[in-house]
Amino acid sequence: MSLPWREIRVSSWIDLMSALHGGNMVQSSPYEGNHLRSPYVFRGMDVAAWSLQTGLQRLPKNQNSRTDIVERSLLRNFRKYASAGALDRTSEWYVLAVAQHNGLPTRCLDWTTSPLVAAHFACGDENYKDEDGAIWCVHAGILRDLNEVSLANLRGIAWVYDTRLLEKSFVDLDALDSSAEGDLMLLWEPPSLDQRIPSQSGLLSIMNNGASSHTEFLQKCSETNPDLLIRIVISARMKSEARDLLDQNNISERSLFPGLPGLCAWLKRYYGTSW
Question: What is the pTM of this model?
Answer without folding.
Answer: 0.93
